[in-house]
Amino acid sequence: MRRGILANRDELKALRSRIARRPFDSIYDFLRKRCALILTTNPITEAQWRANWQQGVWCAATTAARTAQGRIIDLLIAHHVDRNTAYRDRAIEELKNLVSWSSWTDPCHSELEVDLCTAEAAVAAAVALDWLYEDLTEADRLRVIHALRHKVIEPYHRAVKKGAWWYSCYHHWNAVVNSGCQIAALALSDEEPEAREVEHLSLDALRHFFDALGREGGWDEGLGYWGYAMRYVLLLGEARARLLDDQRIFHARGMDATGLFPIYFTPNAHAASFGDQSVVPLYGAFYILVKHFGLKEVTWWLDTYAFHRDVSAADWSAAGLALLLRPVDAETTRQPALAPLKVFNEIGWAAMADQWPRPSFYVAAKTGDLAANLAQCDMNSIQVHVDGEALLVDLGHPPHSREYFSGDRGGFYQVQARAHNTLTVGEREHRIDAQGLIIEAQTGTDYRWLACDARTACGENVHFVRHLIMLVNPASHAGRMLVVIDELANSLSEQVDLFWHTQGRIHLDAPGATGTIAGRRAGLYFALAATQSFQFAAHSHPLSPHQSDHVLHASVPHPSNRLLLMSAFSREKLTGKMDVKEANRGNVVVHAGGCYLHFKRLKRHLQLDKVSMR
User: Fold this and answer.
1) Which strand (E) or helix (H) includes residue 389?
2) Same domain, 352 and 302
3) Residue 500 domain boundaries
4) I need a labelling partner for 85 at 20 to 30 A (CA). Which of 65, 259, 498, 541 fits?
């Protein structure tokens, strides 16, 4: 068996010398609290997750395997720091329980021989066997090897021969399953030919993932699945570098830049993602990006946000792997070099901030590929955060279930276009084969401008371009206002519906399409205008017994062929003229709360020409 997959015993013991230094002291304090909580919590057992599955918990086994992996890694790293045998003994108990499971495949994926659960369990068992080798009896070591052979290596080999779909897909399943199973194969491939073949097969399969990872490092599945996929890819890259002196994963296109993707879409450590799994992926494994690419921004992001929250006995290792993988001499900064307007052209996402590292006014926009895995009908959708609070929100996904991952997924409210901060035409859903494009991006001292072309998302006959203009105080650099101009051309007269979603309280002024959105800490004044008459209302859509989606809804029942809608969201009360008008030669003039915008008419869209504030 190969040893030293992520660290050898000497490296683990050497961690003791780190904890007197910053930021390792706070990382270890977080780890120590987590391990203390784990010791007071029941070990993970098959009976537990099977009971959860019977009660309707989706991916119960996968979640259990992930938690077992996180506990084992963190307990063993903590054990090597302060030699607490209770940590080691509990890690051994978690490992024995994991090995005793009758299957490492989640029952929600009963048609598969290998799945995400297999990968989670494989890494847990392989790393545990490596780090506990001298502490286990020979019989226990053989049981772990037997489990790796019969629950990972052999079923992986059979699944690939049968043409398992996850082998050739591009998304997080490819990255997680092939990376996780390969880590187990690396542990055994020096002695077992079948493990060696799995190592080669899984490495070849990962090319599909890397083909989809563009040079900019963005990921169209969103933050949560980026974190899931990249965590396993990085752990595999580290293992291959250590065991085989093979750096090819770190040389793949986009790996040097991908660490910035989650930073741009987690302002103030709050997720501003699109699609499923909108989470902040603050995982200790991402210090590998610092080790190999020297990304000071990633160091700042993890050091600042990863270990200043409540501990949990569930989920992956964060602090343990951070203590192990963060370079002692990592460069960091208090002012990360982040652009006020960052565009990921390859996936059609953009992040707009008044200032970094702690934006007080922030906008995320998506105009990407609606055929991406688990994408929703959210073309040209945006999110707005003010003073660290999301005020215009993306609802994420409903509780995962078999129905949600079936052909009926489109029936869930959260997936539909009307549940996003965008518009619909003719009351149709956005086309799932549509692929939008960011066509303009510009930054000035007092503004940011982004233009997003939805292409055919609203229909072959519809051309929908959304302009986002953030007005910034040039002296304080604080964001003042967001003006959204929706530009539509349609050969048919079809109803247009515009939606804005918030978890805050909506107050409408009477009369007119103005009012306020009040969050817990922040708020916005809003006003809407259009080149044609429209109906305007606010309503709520229940999401659960304890949560509702509050919606601003503007509707133009019978628009002419060309329509402009203006929505303004401001920190300050909007006074004065509020309108959007076409001028000579198709040019457009916008007045919004003392802001004057002038657009020139180009062949396919408007172009921002002048910005001024009173």
Assistant:
1) strand 389-392
2) no
3) 341-613
4) 65
Residues 291 and 365 reside in one and the same domain: no
* Alpha carbons 381 and 274: distance in angstroms, whole number: 9
Question: In sequence order, what are the beta bridge partners of 292?
Answer: none
351 near 338, Cβ under 8 Å?
no
Mutual orientation of helices 138-148 and 85-100 as an angle, nearest 10°?
50
Count of residues in the chain: 614
Residue 606 covered by a domain:
yes
pLDDT at residue 614 tops 80: no
Q: What is the mean pLDDT of residues 224-239?
A: 98
CA separation for the pair 394, 487 (Å, rounded) = 22
The answer to the question of residue 267 being in a domain is yes
Q: Which residues pair with 471 in a beta bridge?
A: 447, 481
pLDDT of residue 576: 87
**Same domain (yes/no): 294, 193:** yes
99's tokens: 């090995």
Give the pLDDT band (50/70/90) at residue 585: confident
Strand order in the sheet with 547-556: 423-425, 496-502, 547-556, 535-544
Answer yes or no: are the C-beta atoms of 441 and 367 closer than 8 Å: no
In degrees to the nearest 10, what's the CA dihedral of 571, 574, 575, 576? 120
Last residue of a domain, one of 325, 350, 374: 325
Cis peptide before 340 (omega within 30 of 0): no
Band the pLDDT of 510: cuts 50, 70, 90.
confident
User: Is pLDDT above 80 for 601?
Assistant: yes
For 326-336, the pLDDT digits (tens) are 999 999 999 99
Residues 450-466 have pLDDT tens digits of: 999 999 999 999 999 99
407 pLDDT higher than 90: no
Handedness of CA 234, 239, 240, 246 (dihedral sign): positive
Nearest Cα to Cα of residue 203 among 227, 187, 183, 226: 183
